[in-house]
Structures are given as structure tokens and as C-alpha cells.
User: Fold this.
Amino acid sequence: MQYTEETVKTLSSCFLQTLAPNPEPRKQAESFLKQVADQPGYGITILRLLSDPLVDAQVRQGAAVNFKNHVKYRWATPLDPDFPPALNPIQDPEKEQIKGLIVTLMLSTPPKIQSQLSEALSIMSQHDFPSKWQTLLPELVVSLRSATDYNIINGILQTSNSIFKRFRYQYKSNELFTDLKYCLDGFAAPLLEIFLKTGQVIGSSSENPAILKPALECQRLSCRIFYSLNFQELPEFFENHMAEWMGEFHKYLIYTNPHVQETDPEKTSVIDELKAAICENINLYMEKNEEEFQGYLGQFATDVWSLLMSVSISTSQDWLATTAIKFLTTVSKSVHHKLFSDPATLKQISESIVIPNVRIRDEDEELFEMNHVEYIRRDVEGSDMDTRRRIACELVKGLSTHYREQVTSMFSGYLQNMIQEYAANPAQNWKAKDCALYLIVTLAPRQASLGATGTDLVNIEQFFDSQIVPELRVQDVNSNAVLKADALKFFTTFRSQIRKQLTLELMPQLIGFLVAESNVVHSYAALCIEKLLALKDGKQLRYTAADLAPFLQPLLTNLFSALKLPESQENSYIMRCIMRVLSIADAGPFAPQCLAELTGILAEVCKNPSNPSFNHYLFEAVAALVKKACERDPEQVTVFENMLLPVFQSVLEQDVTEFAPYVFQIMAQLIESRMPPLPPNYIAFFPPLLTPILWQRQANVPGLVRLLQAYLQKAPQEINQGNQLPQVLGVFEKLVASKNTDHQGFFILNTVIENVSFEVLSPYMGQIWTILFSRLQYRSTGKFIKSLIIFASLFVVKHGPSKVIDTVNSVQPNLFLSILDNVWSPNLSSITGETEIKLCAVAASMLFTPLLEGSATPYCVKLLNSVVTLLVKPEEERVDEEQDVPDLDEVVGYTAVYAQLHNSSKAEDDPLKDVKDPKEFLAKTLGGVSSQQPGKLPSIIQGLEPSNQTALGHLCSTFRISIV
Amino acid sequence: MEGASGAHHRDPFKSSVGRVAGQRRRQQAVTVGKERRESVVRAKRLRRADPSDHGDDGSMQLAVMGDEAAYKALEESTVNAVHNLKNLLKGSPAKRIGALQTLRHLLSCTAMPPVHVAIEAGVVTLLVDCLAFGSSEEQLFEAAWCLTNIASGDLQQTCAVEPALPLLILHLGEKSAVHVVEQCAWAIGNVAGDGEVLRDVLLKQGALHSLSRHLLSPVPSLSRTAAWALSNLIKGPSPKAAMELMKIEGMVDTLVSHVSKGEEDLVVEVAWVLVYVTSMSDFHVTLLLNAGLLPPLLGCLASSEQLSLLTPVLRTLGNIVAGDNSKTDVVLSVGQSLPGGIIGVLARCLESKHRTLQKEAAWAVSNIAAGSILQKHTVFNGGVVPPLLHLLATAVFDVRKESAYCLGNLCVAPKESREQGGIILEHLIALVDGGCLPGFIALVRSPDVEAARLGLQFLELVMRGLPNGRGPKIVEKEDGISALEELQFHENDELQTMSNTLIDRYFGEEYGLEEEYGPGMDVLRGSDDSSDYPPWRQGGGLTA
Assistant:
């Protein structure tokens, strides 16, 4: 593509149209651009366009965004020439041209375009820098050294910062260190130069914000680059120049200047950002290079300390406060903790730094009311690592590392004071109690199993009685919502410590809070109930169906009412609680009503599935209901079907892909609980299930397989009469071809073998074996072989050994013995699983008679040896743990994950219920062979491994079998 | 196919533990940190004025160091001396030598010689002229000394010496006087200390062979300087030069004999040569061991107190045991003659107050501990555990990390063994009872991604391995859960996945409810268990 007046005109109008409000011309322009982007030279053309000052500003801006995306999707060199990428990649000569231009352009364009180009440059560098882009770093350094305009300087630093960030999270390797060394050699010295030079600028123009602010931003960026370059280990250059860096850091930590303050209290000032960046740097040094750093530690501890004394509680200083506290925390845990050993120091830290930062702020209250999702995420889901409250508590834990007793006794005292303060005037001083509850919960070691088991700070039982119970027993569930939420969180945290009797007494209160107006409160109530119901003493659930029975009706009523509260229609805490209740309680009479509620919700969420965890619990709840109800009363299946099938049908018809795997599982669950014959509406459902498109989605496969199995078990006649067996086998063939799904294919084949008569099956057997053996020949894996042995064994026990031998030999004469000797016998002993071992041992035992009759004696030695090994040796000694490599070409691309429903799991059934002990079976079978064909077995037994000979002898004597 | 019990045998995490913590680790060939060799500045050496060599002008001695005015004066004198040399270049040899001496004196009378001004004044071409064939020994010596000190400067200054390299190498020849050879070798050593580009230039010009001849010089200072220069030359990261060195006939025996008979100063330099050779070639490790390197090498370790010697010897040893198990066996068996065995000697290094020794020793131990089950037992019972636990709790960061590798390796069973779940339970229990867990949790919280991964791997061992479900409980008690949670949003994908998997598996919402609700909830949360396949007969179902 050439840069001509005409192209400029066309492209300009295109970029304008991409901004058009009208979708029609917009889409047209977009598709045109996508098309021309395939042409060589497009990137360069756009680059020229966006840098042309004569072109309209809007067009240039649009072109800049387009250029960045162009680079994003087309810069990477395709890894595999056999799999060309969806979009044409930019060719090498054009890439070189772009690399040659971009730095200069970036530094000479207006800020909005500059930021797009900087992003593009950073993407390019991820692929090419440094080895394929040797000019970049020198070019940046030359510009940095010569520039005097801080817009340009900061542009360079911004770009460099994004290039160096990868040193912060990649593992050490020679490649990474080669690159790092290259960057250090090129950039460490210029960075220090600009940092010192800018320091002088700041020192000499203390009253001019127009100079100061960009200069301070430059220092901040330099500090971030410092962080990246020092992250892996302390580089020689930085160690040699530590005094200069640290001197400057100190200067900025104590720097105050009204001219750089922000007027907007919510906006973070550039000096605070710089200080925070410095805190991160010294924290890194403290963590990783404490020896080299220790000379500076005292000064910095003092600096950070004073900083924290003066930091306000405004959100604009959150970042600064948390990074500063983190630094003190690191010091408190280090060998230099003695800096804080003075009791007066501990007291000052606690009173002036910890407690003020833990107290709830107006902003937190606002979040509680306006954005409950975010509040909950921070408050109970562990996403609070950067909040002041949490970080302040981390400091307490840090101090406790070396001063546990002092810290504990101090904080016990503070807690008492807070509770007294609250008691003096609850309405006015509620924040004191909130602070106390937050401290207790957060400082207790996190115990996932039972909630927290205790704390040194207070006596949990007493505290619960005196402070939490009254809060829960209050009449109005909507009064002081924050404290209610705190109390519920406290209850949840220490749930295992609260007596069962008291908990049950409080259940009506918990149920009441389910319909509190506050979203946080009703979510916490649901969370609390759910966690209580999951609680176990040893292996027993603490709260049983019987305990739950008296509360069941109001509990279910309130849970479903809660789902109708504003902004809680898809509240996953509540749905999870519903699932838990339905899987423990005896829903009995309430079941139809619950199901009606759940199907109603299901019909609603189908329209726009947006909350995966809510939806998962919803289906779990349905599965739990089906399971419980059908166990009690199979007649209810019909009631359930009538409610569920119409919704399921619409899920499948509207192709709601997220829900299909769930629907298949629950349908299978319904069919499994029925007695044959299946009603016609199910039979009508069957043919569409075999449509290939459904099977192409990996997430569907496990559920579909199970459903297909259910059909094969309950309606084999109907399937055969409908002439659908070839299609079923077609599914088997497709699944068995892949290493990832072959076991699924066998699930189907095994069910076919078990449920379809041999007469129906025999025309297909030759083809089935051919499919299996060619897979065996060309792409065998351990998993495949084991599956094959299990299938063949099942065939033996269901239809007799001679059918297996004949059908295999029909593929090719004498094939059976070859398979037996090369595949079956050698791998038999690696079978695992109780049912599987029994099946395979029994089937192998049944083969001896026909083998001996056919004079295939030599093959018997190997087979018998493997059977004995399988039956007597422990698994560790006979199974090699091997990892099959999955077919990678099949797992690329987006696939929805298959989500197993626990409540719809099915029990394993045993194809050989009449055989109790496979060892006995083997002994008795050999006894039979011995009496029918005497004289043959002893020589076979002679050929076994000595230990197996002994084991077999032992078996025979146990079951009083003598072999002659 | 797997049966009902199959699910419990599979553990996607185990492979990653085995892969990383259980493996031997070679030292990074590329380093960015300062080389911690304390008493000796290894890479570059300035030649200061000999004490016997009294300067002709007392005022030049710079009585007041650090005085700016005096340094200005020194710079000025240096520029003058260069001009003077230029003027005298065509003059009488005696005068020329006098001018060279003055210049050399100026370039060696302070720790920070005014190299930059000399270069700007054009000193290098003059010195190249002075190195011309047929020049007197004294002139060559003085010129080489000047170049030595110029090459001791920064990279840019060292590069300026490049035109002199062919002549410097030439004067390494057999006919040159010993003190000239030594000074040329010294200059070359300085140049070689400054990066791979210059090393390549030297190699192309044949410096390696010329230097190596002098390894066997009867003059101790010359063989020492040659060994030092060679150690700089073969540093790599490319192993090419080291390979070329070892191809020279008799080299293996020369090195081994120096280690066994040499003066301590010489052994230091030879040991550095061995550091680079053993780090780059397994094959030559075998040759060196066959030639009897170990007894004298381990002897140094047991008898010397010198940090400068112990550092390269420890690192060589660490490289040797980074090879296969059979080499480690040889080390252990030769080491039996030492008091406490080799492990006892390493334990004493771990107890040293020097960070360098602690780190090198821990690294060597971590490699032995990555070996066979027998080797692991030997390490475990050899006395290193108490110092390692102490270091893990109190040492500086990089030493803590090395110690953690040792302790982790002691608990991971070798791949071929059939230990339960890949864990050596006896070791694990002893270490946890010895109080190692807080140290590992601190690593999980550290900003270093490798240390965090190591910490996670150890927590996984503890939670999976300790009997009666004690693992998760003790991790909880040490506040490990919040440490794990801190990684849940880490920029490093692996750490993020690992911490999420661990939390889900051991502290997930279904904790304690496995009987009713299998581990399948993981799927929902995004951990990919799709490689697991359910029991053969069930299809979509899961064992109740």
C-alpha cells in the first residue's frame, strides 16, 4: 500500500466513519479497514497518516488506535507455518521500517496519540526486544539524554517502564538474565543521570507547579523502572550507586510543598505517588537485600514513620498509606525488628498507625450501601490486600512475630476500650464496635476447615454472648446494618466455637436477616447459614435434617424471597445456601414448590446467563431436589419432568451453550431413576442428541455420554427399532479417535455391549474391532490399552469368550492370539479399580478353557501370570504411573468448561454382582479346567514367576482346589 | 482405566514439585549482581606502584587523597605526561622509557587513576607504538603496565585498549622476558574481565593458547596471573572458550596437579578456572574426577579458612554434584576421609558467618539433596539440618532461598523411588517439627517469584504428606492461608494457579465435605481437571 493523496482520503473518511453513531456506515468502514489491513505496507501507511499534522485530529486519533490494534494482532511471527494465523502477520521488512520510525514519532506526537504509540511500542518490544530490536534501547537513551522537555522525557520513561516490567514476574533463566543485563548495561547509568538531574530541577524551582509536577512524575517513573531493574536481584551498578539513590529517596520521602498538592481531595497528588513508589522500592530492598540496605534502614524507618503520622484518612492517600505500612511490616518481621522493641514505640504504632487505619471511613460506609458486591469481596473474600484496614492488621501480625505478648495484651486493652466506648453511646459510637469486631476477625489465624478456632484477644464464648447475640436478637433487622453484617461475619468466622444449642436458638434470627434490606446483611446471613450447615464434627455433619426440620418452611420462604430483593436476583450466596439446604434437609412436601421457584428462575436466567456461579448452584439445587425426591418416591419423577422438560427443551432449542451440559446431566439423572419403558416424549428427544454439532463442544461431551448411556440402558429396544444404533456407534467412533475423549467412547461402547443383544450387535462387531485395532496400531496410549482390555473383558463376561475370539478372528485370521499375547496379557496387570480388577480377572479366567481346547497352551502361561499378578500384588508394585500426552491440537481455542453437578452423581454399578471374590473365581475355574483337561495346567504353572507360583498355590489351598 | 480409588492416586501438583524443587540446579551463567568475592576484587586488577619503586617526584605522591585540587593536578600531569611521551616517541630510548615511567607512575599512584584523561590525550596509540617488535624489555614492561591500568577502568575505557591487544598477545611468546609476559597477561586479564564481546576478540586473536602455556611456568607469580587471566577469558556465558582450553593437551593434569601441589594463591586462581569448566561441561567433570581432582579439592575445603579460596572450591564442588548421581557418590565416598565427611564439612561452611560461603554451601547441599534416596539420607543425617533451619529463619534473603531448596529437596523422593506420593515422610515430619514452616511461608510472601514458588511447593508437600490431615491444620495455624491468598491475583500465572489450586484443594468451601461433594467444584473455579477421567462405567457420574 502506498501513501498517496488518494489513500489518505479514503482512509481518513473510513476512520471518521468508524466514529459514526450510525451502525451501518460504521460496520462498513470497519470491515473495509480490516480488509485493507491485510495488504503489505498498511502499518507504515497508517503510521504516516497518524503523524501527519495536516490530517484532521480525530482521524489521527482513530488511526493511532487502529495502529495499536494492528500491531497487537499482527506483530507476532506465527509459530507454526502449518497453522497460519487468522490475520495476516506484518512482514519483516515492514516491521523493520516501523521499528525505525516509531520512537521518533511517539516523542513528537500529541499526548493522546503518544499514549497509543507507546502501547504499540510496548507490544512490539514484547516480541522483539532486545534481541531482534537492538536499536531501541540506544535510541531511547540518546533521546533521554538530549531531551529537556519533560513531556518527552516522561514519554520515554513511560515506554521504558512498560518494556522493563517483565523483569518483575518472570522466572530466572539465562535468557531473562541476558536481556536484563543488556538493559542494565544500557539503561542503569542514564536512569541515575536523569534522576539526579531532575532532582536538581525540583530543588531549584520549588514554587512553580508547571515545572514541578512533570518533574515529580519523571521521578515516579524512574522509581518504577528502578523497581523493575532491581526486582530479580541487586545489580552491580545499583549496589555501587546505592548511596545516591537512597539519598534522593530520603529527600522525597520528607518532601513537602503546598504547590504540588491537589485541590481535589479525591485525587492523588504526584508527590504522594512518588512517595508510594519509593516505599515499594525500599520495601523490595528490605525484603531481598537487607544486608546491603541496612545502613539506610534507620533513616528510612524514621522517614516512613513520620510520613504515616501525617498521612490523612482520605482515599487519595490510600496507596501511600498501604505501601508505607507494608514497609514497616517488612521491617517488623525482619532481623531488624528491634527498631520497634521499645514498648512506647509499639504503643505509638498501634495507636497512631494501626487503629486509625482500621476504623471504618465514610467511603467504606458508602461502599457498603452502594456497591455490596465489592464490599463483600473485600470484607470476606480476601480481596482486601490493598485496603488500609487489612494492611494495618498485617502490621499487627508482623509486630506479633517478635513481640506477641506485648502486642496481644495491648490490643486486648484497646478492644475493651472500644467496647466501652460503644456501650457509652451505641448510636453515636458504633464505629468503635465495628473496629473491634474487624480486628478480632482479621487477627484470628484463618482456619478454613472450621472457621477460626480462637483468638488470644478475647474469650470467644463470652464475647459472643455479650456482644454478638444482642446484635442478632434485635427486633429490627434493618437497624444499623454495618454492625449486623459484622456480627454475622463474626458468627460465620467462629462458627465451630458456638454451641449447637445456641446456634439453633439463633436460627430464627439468621432466617430473619435473610430478608434484611441491606444486600450485605442478607448475603452474610445466607453465607452464615450455609457455612453452619457444612460444618462437621469428625465425619458427621453437625446440623442434620432433623435439626433443620422445624425451621425449614420459613428458611425456604425467606431464601426465595431474598432472591426477589433488589440487586439480589442472582445472588450466589443465597443460591448456594438454597443448594446446601436442599441437599441436607428433607424437603418433602416443599419439593414441588421449591422446584417451581427454581424452574421459574431458570427460565429467567436462560435469557441472559451472566453469573456462572449463581447458575451452577441453581442447577446443583435442582439436582439435589431431583435426587432427594426420586430416592423417596420414584413417582415424583413425572411431576419433576413436567416442570423441567419444557425449560430444558427451550435451553436446547435456543442453544444456550452454557446450560446444555447441566441439562444433559439432569436429564440423565431423571431417566436413570425411571423404570422402563421410557415415555414417548423422551424417545422423541433422542435423535436430536446425536447431532454432530452438539458433540463438537467439548463441554457437552461428558454429560451427553452419560445421557446416551441412560438411554441405552432404559430403551435399547426402542433405539434398535429406530435404527439408531449405527449413529450411536458413529459417536463412539468419533470419541475413540481422540486421545482426550477415547474413554468417553468406551463408556458408550461398554453400555452398548451390556444392554444390546449379541444378535443385534454382531453385524457391527467386525467394524468395531477394526476401529479399535487401527487406533491401537497408530496412536496407542496406556489409557487406551486399559480401556480396550476392560471392554474386551466386559464382552467376555456378557457374551462368552468364544464370541470375542470369533469376532476378532473374523477381522483377520489368528488375530485374537496375537492381541492376547502382545496387548492383553502384558497390560492386564496394570488395571486399577476394584470393579475393574474383578471384571478383568474373571474374564481372563474364563479364557483358559477355550485356549486350552484350541491348543494355545503357550499363551496361557503369560496370561495366567498376569492374572495372578493383578490379583495378588499391591497396586504400587504393578502399575507404572504414566502420563499420556493429550492431543494438543484438539484443546486449543475457547471451550466452555464442563461443570460436574455433585448432586446428580450416580452410583457405580457392578456388571458381576454374582461374583464376590475374583481370587475364588480364578481358583475354581482352574479347578474346573484341571478336571476337564487334566495334565495341562501343571506345566503352565511351572512357567509362572516363582512368587506367583507360590501365590497361586496359596489361593488353591485356600479354596480347597487341587490342580492336576 | 482407573477405578473408584483411582482419583486419589492422581495429583496434578506432584509433577510440578518433582520437576522444580527436586532438581539439581546449575548456577546461572549470566549474572547481574556484584560478584561477592569480598577480599579479592576478581575481575579487574589495578597494578599499584611497587613499594620498591620510589617515585622520582615526591609531590606526585598525592599526599592528600580525595582532595579535588590535587586530583585536578594529577589529571593535568597525566595529560602532560602523555604529550611528553608523544614528543619523545622518536627520541632516545632512555628518554622514552623515562616518559613511560612517569606516565605509568601517574596511572598507578591512586586507586582511581585518571585513565579517562590519558585516553582523551591519545595515550593508546602511543603505547601501541611502544609495544612494537624489537622494543626493549623495559619499554615493553612499562607500556604493558600502563595498558593494564587503563584496562582496569570501565567498559568504555577498556575498549579503548583494543588496538593494543594483538601486540600484548604477541609478547606472551616464549622469547619474551618473564616480567614482560606477566604484565601482558595481566593487561589481557583485565580486558577479558569486561564482557563477552572483548573476550571474543581476545579468543579470535589466540590469547587462550598463549596464556595457557604459562600455567606451567616455574615463576609462581606468572602461573598465578596466567590462571587468573584464563579464568576471566573462559567465563562465558558461552562455553566455547572453556571447551577450547580443555582441549589443550595435558590441561586436565595441569589443573589437578596445581590444586594438589600449588601454593594457596595459585589454587585460588586455578579453582576459578575449574568453576567455569565444571559449570559448562559434564564431560570434563568426568575427566577431572578420573584424574584425581577430588581428594585435593575436598582437602582444601576441609583445611582452609580463606574465604577467597573456599568460595571457588565450594562452587566447583557444587558444579560437580549438579551432575548425575554417580558423581555425587564419588564425592561422598572421597569425602569420607574428612572429619564428619563432606556433609560435615559443608555443615561447617553453612555455619560460617560469611554470606558467600553460606550461599555457596547451601547451593552445593541442595544439589546433593536432589540426588538418590540414599544421598538424601546421607545429607539429612550428616549434620546440615540444624544450620539450614537456622539460616532459613534468620539469614539474608538469597541464603534463605538456597536453604529452602536444600530442605525441600530433602523431602521430595527421587522420581524412580516408590516413596508414598513422592514424599520422604520421615524427613518432612522432622523438618516441620524442627519449625521450618514459618520460614517457607515467609518465602511464599516474598516478592521473589522463584522463592514464592518454592514456598508453595513445600506447603503442598506438607498439606498432602503429613499424616492424619495434620498438614492443612499446621499451615492454617502458621497463617499460611492468608499467604496463599496473597498470590491469588499474582501477575505470574503459575503462582496464581498453584495458590488457587492449593486453596481449593485444602481449604476450599467443600473442605471436610468430600464424601458428599467430590473435588469437582474445582472445575467451576477454573482449575483444569479435564485430564482426569471418571471411572469407566459411569460416564458423566462421579463415585459416591
Notes: The first strand of chain A starts at residue 536 and ends at 537. Chain A touches chain B through 92 residues (CB under 8 Å).
